[in-house]
Design goal:
The chain is mainly α. The protein has helices at residues 7-21, 36-39, 44-65, 71-85, 119-123, 128-143, 146-151, 174-193, 197-213, 220-228, 237-242, 246-259, 271-278, and strands at 96-100, 107-110, 114-118. The chain is built from 13 helices and three strands; from the N terminus they run H-H-H-H-E-E-E-H-H-H-H-H-H-H-H-H. The chain has a three-stranded mixed β-sheet. Helix 6 packs across helix 10 (220-228). The protein starts with 6 loop residues before the first helix and ends with a helix. The model is unreliable at 1-40 and 165-171 (pLDDT under 50).
């Protein structure tokens, strides 16, 4: 977070900024719209808690890096995300993507559909399919509810997130303190510890399927990883710290493409569209 502001004022300001980037009215669909097999698994209260929790985690991410203000780029990355989201298996969520103003190479996903891609990561990409790969990977973390499950984020009284509406209360409020602690843990997963190995594996393999179903070349993920693994220094510090080795991920992606029968097919790479939008960065 920006150390020049108080903790409270920073959270309030960043939450407001995030709300402008990711509007409230786009975040939730009725449980009745979900596939029958999901209707009894995820309650409406659980979805609301996930979205509200993710909003606070997203505010922390924006506090770390700040928003890269570029309307054309913002529209573009969200159109790509919308194409992938149709195949993500979370119809109750609407995903929104924001670009972070930093040269570091990384991307983050907060529960509830908040996805962040750094400007540095985009500058390393060669086409739209590689952008889709990064978004699909982060979307898979949300769809798999990896942070939600690990931190037991629910809309019930047994979860600290059920007290989210009490955040405006006194500083000593137990629910507020418990909620803030959970946000700290989520931020720690993203910036320090990383996801569990099985969660990263699931995100990579799911992303391959999302991409293929959306018409993007799934092998583009391996191509992107092959390129950025050669980067050195501070640009890669957090990514190398929180993710498995690129060689293992590339091998897994190639195996998944072959196992799912996705190789040798015609896919979109979107090179021309991507080249045009990169001129605005």
């Amino acid at each position: 977070m920006n150390r020049t502001y108080s903790v409270l004022m920073t959270v309030v300001a960043l939450a407001a900024a995030l709300a402008l980037c990711l509007p409230d009215n786009a975040f939730s669909r009725s449980p009745r719209d979900r596939p029958p097999q999901l209707q009894n698994i995820v309650s409406e209260d659980d979805v609301k808690a996930e979205i509200q929790f993710g909003r606070e985690v997203g505010a922390r991410i924006l506090g770390q890096y700040h928003l890269y203000e570029n309307d054309s780029l913002a529209k573009y990355v969200n159109l790509v995300a919308a194409a992938i989201a149709r195949n993500s298996g979370r119809p109750e969520l609407t995903y929104r993507v924001a670009v972070l103003k930093t040269d570091t190479i990384n991307a983050y996903a907060a529960p509830g559909g908040y996805i962040f891609v750094t400007k540095g990561a985009i500058m390393q990409m060669k086409n739209e399919a590689e952008l889709a790969a990064v978004i699909a990977h982060e979307m898979a973390h949300v769809a798999g509810k990896h942070i939600v499950k690990e931190l037991d984020i629910k809309g019930t009284d047994s979860s600290a997130v059920s007290g989210i509406t009490k955040m405006v209360g006194g500083a000593g409020d137990p629910a507020r303190a418990a909620f803030a602690s959970m946000v700290d843990k989520a931020v720690g997963i993203l910036f320090e510890r990383g996801y569990k190995k099985e969660d990263e594996k699931e995100a990579d393999t799911s992303a391959v399927v999302y991409m293929a179903l959306s018409g993007y070349d799934p092998s583009s993920m391996a191509s992107y990883f092959s390129r950025i693994k050669k980067a050195r220094g501070g640009e890669m510090e957090i990514l190398n710290k929180t993710h498995p080795s690129f060689d293992k991920r590339i091998e897994l992606i190639k195996e998944t493409v072959k196992a799912e029968g996705l190789d040798g097919l015609e896919y979109n790479k979107g090179g021309r569209r991507f080249d045009e939008i990169r001129k605005s960065i």
